[in-house]
Structure formats: structure tokens, C-alpha cells
Amino acid sequence: MGNKKPVTLFVQCLVDSMYPEVAQGMVHVFKNLGLSVDIPLDQTCCGQPAFNSGYRKEAARAAKRFIEIFENAEVIVCPSGSCVDMVKHQYPGLFEQGSSWQKRALGISGKIFEFTEYLVDVLKIEDVGANFYGRVTYHDSCHLLRNLGVKDQPRKLIANVRGTRLIEMEHADKCCGFGGTFAVKFPDISTAILEEKIDHIIEAGVDAVVGCDISCLMNIQGMLSRKNSPIKILHIAQLLAK
Fold this sequence. Notes:
Elements: E1 7-9, H1 13-18, H2 20-32, E2 37-38, H3 48-52, H4 56-70, E3 76-78, H5 81-90, H6 100-109, E4 112-114, H7 115-122, E5 131-138, H8 142-147, H9 152-159, E6 162-166, H10 181-185, H11 187-203, E7 208-211, H12 214-226, E8 232-235, H13 236-240
Parallel strand pairs: 1-2, 1-3, 3-4, 5-6, 5-7, 7-8
Helix pairs in contact: 4-6, 7-9, 11-12
């Protein structure tokens, strides 16, 4: 195993409020790997919804709080590519060039990782000893793939889950239509994009769709339910904890 620093978890808002089993899955995986885990109880939103809506001052306020809470961590791991992208790539631009806050933002941006990115690229682990018997397909979430460059890491981990067969759906890298506030501002466009994604998932003939961002999976789950599809959603942390 590579770097065995204590892991501090940033638990994304949707995970904290609606899918706590995702965070529990991460804790289970890390503890099985012999890593100590810390979860700051005073953590809040990273500010991404405000930032995406154009409220930069409010986003900067959330960023300052995040930095104050997490800057002493050795490494930060989060189960959301979009939140990691926010901290890693957007935080430094929220503050005045050369300011102390920008320096602190740059410092924290270098030690935050998405869950699968940390397992594969930092710890050099592709097999966590998981078991799941069924056929799954994988959805590439937009920020994770395009902004963080995470594509092969989750697939390598899925390939080593005993009993699991990975079936690549058509256009796995296309958006699910969620996009945070995009789905609220442009519901008709969002739904049309989602319908196409759901068609590809169903055509793959799988038992579950796996992803690294619960926001995408929540969106997908809603449409699958409306279509009375038996296909389940699984955040990769849940899959690897089995």
C-alpha cells in the first residue's frame, strides 16, 4: 500500500442528509485497509451551489469555513467529484491574487481527493476485497471525468469486485442532466438528457448502475423509479463496502 496518512472525510451535503450509507461505506473500506478516519462534525457545504448560481461572495464565505475546518488535515477524501473540483480548482479563484486566503486555498487544494482517485492513484489499491454478485454499468459524472480526469480508477475497482460483471453502457460519459441548479433552472432540458441516459442504462441489461457522485445517482434513481425499473443505484463506496 502507498501513502497511509490518516484520512479526513469531507461528507458531501446530499450524502450527509439523504445517503449516509455512502459515508459509512467509505469508513468501512478505509478501516478495512487499516487507515484511521476522522470526520469533523462541524463541516458544512463547500459552497458549490452558491458558486454555480453566481453568488461568489457567499461561496467565498463557505470556502473560508471549509478551509478553517480542514486545513490541518493531512489528506481529505470526499465521495463527490463535483465537490472535490470546487475545492481543488474553484477555491483559489474566489480570493484576491496573492492574498493570505488564496494561499490557504491553494494549500488545501493540493490535499483533497475523490474517493476512487485516492484509492487507486495515492494508495495504489485496486482490490479492496469486495463481493457483489450481479451485472453493473458505470456512469461517468461530469466534473469527475472532465475536471478531475477520473475515468479508469472506478472501473479498475469495479473490475476487482468478486462476482461483479461490468457492462459498459453506450455513451457512459454523457451527462445525466442533473447539473445541480441546472436541473432546477432548465427542467425540460434536464429531463430530456436524463431520458437518454436511462435508455442506455436499461439497454445495458444490468442489475445496478454504479457512480461516484450521489447527485447523479439520485437523479437517475428518480427516473428509474418512475419507469418502474428494477435497476438499483449504488455509489461506488457502497459497492466496495460489500
